Each structure stands twice: as C-alpha cells, then as structure tokens.
C-alpha cells in the first residue's frame, strides 16, 4: 500500500481496490455465516440432548424410543441414526458409560468467580456423577488460592463423581508459566486417577475450562452425543461457541465491541468446517491427550496450538467437530477504564501471538519427512498465514488505503480519474459493507442477556451507540495487537510469560 503508489499510482490504486473488494465480499459472506451460526445455536439449544442420548441407549437395547418432541435441529439425522443403532448396536459407544473430566484452570482469581463456574456444573442436563472435576490451580497463586481450592472442595466436592485438587508447582523445568503447563500437569494427574480407578480411558472426554467459564446446560450431553456416534472419535476434538457476554452489561464500550467481534467470529467458524480450530475451551478424548502428552507446556496460546499438535500427531487424520451450544465467558473488565483497556490490549496481544504457529506449521508441512497429507497441509498453512497477515494489515488498508495512491499521484503528476476517485470509491464500498455490520448488530443484540438490575436503563442506548466505535476499535486493538506480537517475533523478543486477564465477579472487583 505504501510502496506500489510510488512505483505506479494506478498499480497502487488497483491493489487497494482489490483488497477492499475482497474484504467487502468477505463481509457479506460473514454476515450470512454469523446469522447461520446464530440459527444453529438457537435450534441446537432447544434440543433435549439428554433425551436423544436416551434414544440411543434404548435403541442399543432393542427398545423403542420414549415419547418426546421429534422435530428440531438435525431431527432427521437423529431418526436415521436410531434406526442404524437398532440394526447394529455396536456401531456406537453406549452414552451412559461416558464420563466428562472437567479441568478447571485457575491462577489467583477470587472465590466468587470460580464458585459461579463450579455451581453451574451442578446444574447442567448431565448428571453430576458423570463429571470428574480436576481443579488445576497454580502454586504461584499463593495461600489465598490454596484456601479457595480447599473451600471449593469442601462445599462442592462431594456432589460430583470426583473433585480433585491439583496444585501446579512453580518453576518446573521446560515450562512457560501459564495455562498450558497448568492443565497439562492436571491432565497427567487425571490419567493416573483414571488408571487407579480402573476406568477405561476411552470412556473419558476431557473439557478444559477457564475458571470464569459457564457451559450451556446441554454442553456435556452435546459432546457425549457427538463422541458416542463418531467412528473416529479418538481423533476428534469438540469445539463449542465461545460467547463473551456474561458480564457484557458492565464493561466499557470498547470492550463490548471487541467482545462482540469475538462472538461473531466464533459463531461464524461453527458453520465453516475448514476454518474451525480449537479455541479457548474445548473437549478432546483422554486417550488422544495421553498419546499426545496433553497440551503444550511451552506456548502461551495452548488452545489454537493444540489443533496443530493434533493435526501433525495424527498425520492429518484429525478434525474439529462443532458443538452448536456455547460456553459463556467474561468480556475483559478491570477496576478502571484505563486498566480495562490495558488488560484488553494484553489479552488480544496474547491471542495474536498465535502467529508463532506459522513457522511451527510451515516446517512440518514442507519437511521432506512429513507424514501428514501435503495439499491439505498446504491449504491450512496458507490459511493460517493469511489470517495473521490480514489481522495485522486489513484494518489499516481499509482505513487509509484509498488516500495513499491519491496523495502520491497528486504530488507526482500521475493522477488519473480512477486514482482521483479512490477515496470516494473506497468510502462507498465501506458504506455498502455496513449491511454486514447491521446484520451483526442484530445478532449481537439477540445474544444479550437480560439487563442486570444494577445497570441503568440508559445503558441500552449506549449498547447501540457503541457501534460507532466499531471501525476505530478494530483498528486500534486488532491491528495494533497483531503488529505488536509479530514485531516481538521478528525481533526475537519471545513471550515467556502468560498474562492472566483479570477476572471480576458481578461487575465488582473481589
């Protein structure tokens, strides 16, 4: 954008128009897909997944299904599956034998934040006896965190199939202090516990949660359904929709805008199978995790990196299954507006540091000894590369790209009618592209939880006015954090620390 206009102003203008046009098409497709993602979420959330699991159980035993509503999300597929299981009961795994190990990662978060998550686990449609909670807390959290862990065990531990406290020691060799190392330590403890209890590890599905995550009531039953029916279940992971709306009414407008963009992306990827990756909280079979050594202990972006570790470990025979119900999470919120903005920048910088996966993937896809399929690997590599390049540059190109060829051409005497109209042309495309934003606004407002009683009614107005900040917020946070992370990689200032996002409960610091 900055070099081509000095070579040829027309060439620079064509380049900018091509990028802006491509982004316009993507915006329109994104608006369609975010609406599709919302529709699948709504339909899936209305399904009684526990009843569908019962249908499978009864079909395995040669008994008819119980009476319950037969319509809804993928009802025809379910009916065909029940018929298949009736004919061949061994074609699926018996759902009632499955256990869900829930690894809850914590550092120094306040008790009310963590307790909300633990209480929520008790009130899903899955029996608490089928949940094995492994509370992975950091020794670095100090005595207060240790006391919180003991309090949680005393109050809630007896209500689950198991409740195990796992304190991750500080300063272990070959680790970056962070979530990946913490949950991997807990994962090894889980594997030992399963072995000691003589439980078949193929019956155990592991979900990793941050301590402020709130799973949808049918999340575990959805995962169990998909796991039980899949013939290649041990080479799958299960990705729910991450929705950052738990505290959305309490956070400042820029944080709401960033949270909304994250919600849109997560809704969109659930309907794009090739784009779906592990992100934030997800589930994977214990057998696969044991075989892989659980998660990476040397990266601060363990969730997205887990996709690539799994892809290469299984030689490309690996896929992510969308779970069309959410795990609710908090938007970034600290004590003050300034502190919240700093925390938001740190969170997005940590996420954008996933650009470190580009060389990890590249050297494995193009290695002479690569065992994964070449062309699917190449496609994924360039998709990963393009995603990080776009994250860093597209907002800047759209914001000022129309002016660069115009200014250069007027100063060098290369002005043509196309170049002179560049700022107006790009502006018109941006205005038409607002159709996509309008769709996203409607989707976001349909996701909003009820307004808490402590939030003034006037906040509803700011919930609409916040969208005026959308272009600027994405420019400031998305592009700047991506450029910052990529600059750190370029200059060898590698991240050796996991910056924990501050957690708050009920809109108040604890």
Account of the 3D structure:
The chain has 510 residues and is α/β, with parallel strands linked by helices. The chain folds into three domains: 4-39 and 381-490, no CATH class; 48-87, no CATH class; 89-374, Spore Coat Polysaccharide Biosynthesis Protein SpsA, Chain A (Alpha-Beta Complex). It is built from 19 helices and eight strands. It has helices at 4-7, 9-45, 49-60, 75-87, 111-121, 142-156, 179-196, 219-229, 253-269, 286-292, 302-313, 337-352, 357-365, 374-400, 403-412, 417-420, 422-447, 459-465, 470-490, and strands spanning 99-106, 131-138, 162-168, 204-210, 214-215, 236-243, 283-285, 319-328. The strands form two sheets. Strands 3-2-1-4-7 form a five-stranded mixed sheet, sandwiched between helices. It has a three-stranded mixed sheet with strand order 5-8-6. Helix 13 (357-365) packs antiparallel against helix 14 (374-400). The radius of gyration is 24 Å and the shape is globular. It starts with a helix and ends in a 20-residue tail after the last helix. Mean pLDDT is 93; it is low at 506-510. The chain crosses the membrane at residues 12-35, 389-408, 428-448, 468-487. Keywords: Membrane, Transmembrane, Transmembrane helix. This is Glycosyltransferase, catalytic subunit of cellulose synthase and poly-beta-1,6-N-acetylglucosamine synthase.
